[in-house]
Amino acid sequence: MDKKHEEKFEFSHVPVMLYEAVDGLNVKPDGKYVDCTTGGGGHSFEIASRLNAQGRLFCFDRDPEAIEAAKKRLSPYADRITFINRNFGEVGDALDGIGIDGAIIDLGVSSYQLDNAERGFSYIKDAPLDMRMNQNDPKSAYDVVNTYSKEGLIRILRDYGEERFAPKIASYIINARENEPIKTTGQLSEIVKKAIGAMAAKDGGHPAKRTFQAIRIEVNGELAVIEPTLTALTSLLNPGGRLSVITFHSLEDRIVKQTFAKLAKGCTCPPKLPICVCGKKPQLELISKVILPSDEELKINSRSKSAKLRLAEKI
Ligand SMILES: C[S@@+](CC[C@H](N)C(=O)[O-])C[C@H]1O[C@@H](n2cnc3c(N)ncnc32)[C@H](O)[C@@H]1O
Ligand SMILES: [Zn+2]
Questions:
Q1: Fewer beta carbons under 10 A from the terminal one: N or C of the chain?
Q2: Interval between CA 276 and ligand 2 midpoint (Å)
């Protein structure tokens, strides 16, 4: 990245529910912590500032640009941080049985990724269709939009965008790409507007919002890693260690809620069995109900609008 570019896209991500999420970890100064989604380093900075020289913070992000920016932002605490440029889905392998005292996940994309038009996430700014959180990954939004079958497109728009006009949008995409490939976010946004603009106006919001969310989730395989990661983190946690998870839409939140409930229940025997034969014991205790951003935060950070925080503690 050249200097000018770097200044323009200074990693300006305002952390959501910063104190609620980090206080929820009960940070011990000499403990070991994991930030699965380091991004601009907002939550990491707060965690690192609560550690002493014996403490350790493992900072994951799959986006190499996020890791570079976080290294700079967190340089005052470089002595206590290990940066790991991997998918958090690999946290179990990467940490290989290290006992940890807490982990935070702040799902989704960062403001930096959204605002930097070149990354191709934005339905407002025109740029090549990309949406990869890690630009070394093989599949981009271009591939999804130009190669998926109509049924495939309908499935992702419905399942990941909760888009009620999925069939209509898929038809318009298929028609448009018969002439030439759909190359940019602007083109895709216009196609969606043509398909459902008038109808979507009634729902409020940008007509292409749900389509872009769906394609982004597909490109990055965002939902499939959540449950296995929560399970792996729970195994790594020392007793009394905490998990703090922030989600931004109902699909993510449902997975977190259900996985926490499963790990809190332990036993997976069918309800009709009179006694437990699986022998699985509860591993997590849920801490409080779902936590929402304060009115203050909602006023100053519109990105916090749909955020939900869930906390759990290892038994
Ligand atoms: C909402 S931002 C995190 C912001 C951060 N908490 C802060 O305070 O600046 C989400 C970040 O997580 C990263 N990310 C999303 N899914 C990931 C995954 N499966 N593995 C690793 N990083 C991921 C994204 O690249 C992005 O940088
Ligand atoms: Zn059982």
A1: N
A2: 4
Give the mutation target among 13, 44, 45, 61 for probing the ligand 1 site: most ligand atoms within 8 A of CB: 61
Tell me which ligand sits closest to the C-alpha of residue 35: 1
Distance between CA 168 and CA 285 in Å, rounded? 44
Are the C-beta atoms of residues 148 and 174 closer than 8 Å to each other?
no
- pTM surpassing 0.85? yes
Number of the ligand closest to the Cα of 18: 1
**pLDDT tens-digit map of 147-192:** 999 999 999 999 999 999 999 999 999 999 999 999 999 999 999 9
CATH of domain 3-108+223-314: 3.40.50.150
Q: List the CATH code of the domain at 120-220.
A: 1.10.150.170
